[in-house]
Amino acid sequence: MPVIEYIEAIRLAMKEEMERDPEVFVMGEDVGLKGGVFGTTKGLQQQFGEDRALDTPLAESAIAGVAIGAAMAGMKPIAEMQYSDFMFPATNQIISEAAKIRYRSNNDWSCPIVIRAPIGGGVFGGLYHSQCPESVFFGTPGLKIVAPSTAYDAKGLLKAAIRDPDPVLFFENKKCYRLVADEVPEEDYTVPIGKSKVMREGGDITVIGYSMPLHFAMQAAEELSREEGVEAHVLDLRTLQPLDRAGILEAAAKTGKVLIVHEDNKTGGVGAEVAAIIAEELLYDLDAPIRRLCGPDVPAMPINPPGEKHFLLNKEKLKSAMLELARF
Amino acid sequence: MPVIEYIEAIRLAMKEEMERDPEVFVMGEDVGLKGGVFGTTKGLQQQFGEDRALDTPLAESAIAGVAIGAAMAGMKPIAEMQYSDFMFPATNQIISEAAKIRYRSNNDWSCPIVIRAPIGGGVFGGLYHSQCPESVFFGTPGLKIVAPSTAYDAKGLLKAAIRDPDPVLFFENKKCYRLVADEVPEEDYTVPIGKSKVMREGGDITVIGYSMPLHFAMQAAEELSREEGVEAHVLDLRTLQPLDRAGILEAAAKTGKVLIVHEDNKTGGVGAEVAAIIAEELLYDLDAPIRRLCGPDVPAMPINPPGEKHFLLNKEKLKSAMLELARF
Amino acid sequence: MTQTGTVRQNSRHAALGISDEKAVAMYEIMKLARMYDERGQLLQRAGKINFHISGITQEPSQTAMAFAMDRERDWFLPYYRDYALVLSVGMTVKELMLSIFAKAEDPNSAGRQMPGHFGCRRLRIVTGSSPVTTQVPHAVGFALAAKMRGEDAVSIVSFGEGSSNQGDFHEGLNFAGVQKLPVVFVCQNNQYAISVPFSKQSAGKIADRAIGYGFPGYRVDGNDPLEVYRVVKEARERAAAGEGPTLIEIMTYRVTAHSTSDNDLAYRTKEEVEIHKAKDGIPVYRRYLTELGLWSDEKEDELTRRLRAMIDEATEYAEKAPFQPPEDSFRYVYAEEGEAR
Amino acid sequence: MTQTGTVRQNSRHAALGISDEKAVAMYEIMKLARMYDERGQLLQRAGKINFHISGITQEPSQTAMAFAMDRERDWFLPYYRDYALVLSVGMTVKELMLSIFAKAEDPNSAGRQMPGHFGCRRLRIVTGSSPVTTQVPHAVGFALAAKMRGEDAVSIVSFGEGSSNQGDFHEGLNFAGVQKLPVVFVCQNNQYAISVPFSKQSAGKIADRAIGYGFPGYRVDGNDPLEVYRVVKEARERAAAGEGPTLIEIMTYRVTAHSTSDNDLAYRTKEEVEIHKAKDGIPVYRRYLTELGLWSDEKEDELTRRLRAMIDEATEYAEKAPFQPPEDSFRYVYAEEGEAR
Ligand SMILES: Cc1ncc(C[n+]2csc(CCOP(=O)(O)OP(=O)(O)O)c2C)c(N)n1
Ligand SMILES: Cc1ncc(C[n+]2csc(CCOP(=O)(O)OP(=O)(O)O)c2C)c(N)n1
Ligand SMILES: [Mg+2]
Ligand SMILES: [Mg+2]
């Protein structure tokens, strides 16, 4: 199987779905000739024409709203938000409209859109090019939310999202774009929305997370295994909504010691819900308090390098939290 | 002390603050002659003139954005959102701007606004006049969020919010407006932001919540005391952000059995964070799994009466959850 | 509408290509909408329903809007006062009554949403919500889909003048202008956004905003359905011909309170309202048809009787109809197992 | 700017009430902004900084904008290319360099924000963010505060033509129009929003949008600073006189890539860029001053030397300056204990 970059997996998923289904198209700022500011839509306009790789005005509420209209009309739009930081102007269209169209019409209408948005820091993007907005949309019934950490999942989940009959927010990690590469089959496949994945088996502690920080967890887990004989069980949520409750409970029960990690700030993050689910369902299987290692409760990361580093998670921070938990 | 309605407490807080400080003013849709769709701003335009009870165009992003500008210029605006369901168009101004102005300018600028918005259902308002949007804004550092359940707290917290140097979202419960009335001093007072309040002392179970459902909890607690000898300890969070961690832990430790209640839907709600805090800090003091009784994970409540009733919390639902927890 | 004595062939409606039957059908819809609306108010006052929101005085233009479109092919994105529009497109009074009583059989939402929140895939009426103006970008999306698929459909969307001050108005119209999409934007300027008079909502004309988006904008007298028909028809033709969108500002006046929850005398005078009530377009249009020999007092009586019976029957049916079972009110958050759409 | 041989008293700038000194000062700022900007590009290419975003070709109009305002009293809400504007208002090159190197002493954000995200209470420059156009309603809020307090201040806000398609543009301008607020809206139309050409952003003229808000809108040639000065000055006077806002669309062209992260040849040709480079307003203005005897090659050399030394010194200073201590990067989420503001 060829090893490809995370960003290429995303590009290929769109390309293949556009080839497969004439109703799939991508729209957003600079998605045309420029191929997006990160290059995720490179070549699509050349292959599919201006209409199906549509450069829009700089207006996120319209990008979402027009996509929603087109989706209700039966198209399968992929709306790109240039940075997830810039999707807030579209909040009303996402929460009041996309999420509620099926429910409010008692299943008469539906809204099969995908909204793609790059999340995460570590690229010297400063306050407004680094945020993780998951928690703003998490907990809005009617939306599905995915956030892959590998190229394989990125491709498979994006295809699943495009084929899904309901609105899906697809949070891709911009730091993963070129840093993460893994084996991706050439044949068509999808990864089911709503299913977590065990990235690593272990019996001492359980790490639950999603997106970029899992790579730190995996590196830390390898070192802890070598250096301390501590074996971490690592679970990639992959889908944030609906959460894979069974997968979470199984992973937590496996070791009884749980560390939840994400880059989004701690308070009110997805990790709070994961912890609450475990505390509600599995309290007596726990051998340690449920820990969370997340971004600090600060508006966003600064652009200066020491500040950014201080803000972000990394292998060392993971490792010491994991070790501390193992020794608890 | 006079007993006044919750809505009157809110109106009085604005009136008194506007009398006290010429920089305080209120702006929003229909806040002028009509006095707001609920009547919270009644009489203010007559007393303070058109400028200080300013009817705006129907444009929430401008209401928030203009208020933010005025606040940076040194004014103390109170921006009214007609229903909290309609504040989503202002999300970008609230999350990207208000919440980050102090931080991004390294304390050079500040944004002392209050955004008031009525939350909650039970008024046959259907999908878009009943929502609880707390969880969308909760977890956004830089914002403070309050949600009083009594007239006393409503008045004292609104005054505190107006005097606070940072942006405060003030979620008032529309069902409480005329249903809740309690003693409110005539003298000036404030209720500190960030402090919870014990509404009822008890040794068997702890109920933690905010806003309207606490009244069901109090009714249920009285009945359980009379009928079953179960004594509930009831904590009103009052402030959702920053959460009163010490108050939460103390209340949870008191009984070791915790039920968290709110009308906002369960997944990703404020209750998840409360549960996560307890699971992180107090695991060994718990005698039962941490329970949450919240709105269902459905986009919003229907307008037809049986559907609305099925959706909402009430005394009976609280009572049976509390009894079940007591018997655990 | 004052040319007494003109022969039918030279009538205004004939000049617009409207047959006599269609001209009369338009009148019947206006009346139906009016009578339905009045019944809604009565039902609310009688405590049978919680809430009613009225479209009274806006029916002539709403009817004309719908009739100027292709009702088999086009997409309709109405707003909450558009009873006459949805009735023109094919929604029945029974369906409206089911909605006002919030019953399971209501095709708009199975009694989940407030009345006036229309939606019916069968009739190409797109589901709407309460936050105003979100439907404007949706209409643009329908037009984009039509253009991409080479379909002949045009979308038409309406909204109040207050709602035209939302960001979504601007973003939607500008998008449609750039892409020259087949969409007709209709602002029903009834001079109030709840209590806020037009003078405090905008200092310009809504129609003039089209200039900045590079397509035409027109102001039309909403009490003159034939003029509204003409302008909307032309807009539809431009759209279908690939010439892009049009913005139409219909000048009307909200004679009722904003809704049954509003007391309008807190912010305007009875006299102001009376002046506008006197300009009601329905009697004027009736006179027009009568003068042409297309209508008569007898026909009016017959119609009134027929519509009243229809509304009575619908009311009775809807009142008795069951609510959606409470358990079902948690359904359709997502597609259910096995559903593709 | 072609009237060779005119005597100074009858010069264009004198006619606008601009003294010779001020006319020259404007030139010096344009040059300073240009040289700072070129240095920024060099520093990025040399790997000393991560990112630079350029305002090249937009300096003449930015300078004129600022000089036409009351720099002691007015509020400035610039956007990320507005180096010449903030320099005109009093920000120093050293401060800009501290920002580009993201150092603690940077008055804009202590090195928290990207360069081009201006803000300095001392200079009445309002803190800005990256999501475009949010500053437009803020400017309206400053104007509202000025009006409510009876202060003489006017706010001026700038943004790109791409950004004028955001909802906040519409909501902000409409609000200001209704309240007749003292605010000047300046759209710097440089023909691109990253890769998207103006033709795909809007089908109308930005200036024309003012019509729909009930106040004047003007298109001005951005390469002609004196004309920009005239129009902004007039707008400021209208604002201060209580006559309300003005929208000004400055026609310019972005000759650099969007930023150092962009490769513009993926979406436009070198030839197109060259055509616009040739229209650069700075040499034209220099010729204008020279023809009037206000400027000379010697003065140019002296200025270049002086500015280069200033920029060198600022660069060195900023490069060596410390970052904000990482612990401090968690400060000021909220007011700290004892702070009232
Ligand atoms: C985003 C949003 N804000 C506020 C409201 C509350 N609201 C409902 S109708 C209305 C006035 C609408 O005025 P207009 O658009 O002129 O329509 P009209 O009711 O006059 O027909 C308001 C403020 C809403 N529905 N949506
Ligand atoms: C809300 C939002 N969406 C997207 C972006 C990313 N972005 C940064 S600059 C830019 C183009 C801005 O174009 P324009 O307003 O014309 O200003 P210019 O850069 O041409 O001066 C875009 C899309 C952003 N900053 N904010
Ligand atoms: Mg209106
Ligand atoms: Mg531009």
**Which segments of chain C are poorly predicted (pLDDT under 50) over 5 or more consecutive residues?**
1-6
Poorly predicted ranges of chain A: none
Q: Tally the helices of chain A: what do you get?
A: 13
Global morphology of chain A = globular
Run of helices and strands of chain A:
EHEHEHEHHEHEHEHEEEHEEHEHEHH
Domains of chain A, number: 2
Number of domains of chain C: 1
Q: Which strand-content bin applies to the residues of chain A?
A: 15-25%
- Dominant shape of chain C: globular
The CATH class of the largest domain in chain A is identified as Alpha Beta
Can you describe what's shown?
The complex is a heterotetramer, with two copies of chain A (328 residues) and two copies of chain C (341 residues). By secondary structure, chain A is of the alpha/beta class. Chain A has two domains: 3-183, Thiamin diphosphate (ThDP)-binding fold, Pyr/PP domains (Rossmann fold, 3-Layer(aba) Sandwich), CATH 3.40.50; 197-327, Rossmann fold (3-Layer(aba) Sandwich). Chain A is built from 13 helices and 14 strands. The termini of chain A are far apart. By secondary structure, chain C is an alpha/beta fold. Helices cover 43% and strands 9% of the residues of chain C. Chain C contains twelve helices and seven strands. In chain C, the strands form two sheets. In chain C, strands 1-2-3-7-6 form a five-stranded parallel beta sheet, sandwiched between helices. In chain C, strand 6 (217-221), helix 9 and strand 7 form a beta-alpha-beta unit. In chain C, helix 2 crosses helix 3 (59-67), helix 3 (59-67) packs parallel to helix 9 (225-240) and helix 6 (135-148) runs parallel beside helix 7. The radius of gyration of chain C is 20 Å and the shape is globular. Chains in contact: A-B, A-C, A-D, B-C, B-D, C-D. Chains A and B meet through helix 4, helix 6 and helix 11 of A and helix 4, helix 6 and helix 11 of B. The structure holds thiamine diphosphate (TPP) (2 copies) and magnesium ion (MG) (2 copies). One thiamine diphosphate sits between chains C (81, 130-132, 159-163, 190, 192-194, 254, 258) and B (29, 58, 60, 82, 86, 89). One thiamine diphosphate sits between chains D (81, 130-132, 159-163, 190, 192-194, 254, 258) and A (29, 58, 60, 82, 86, 89).
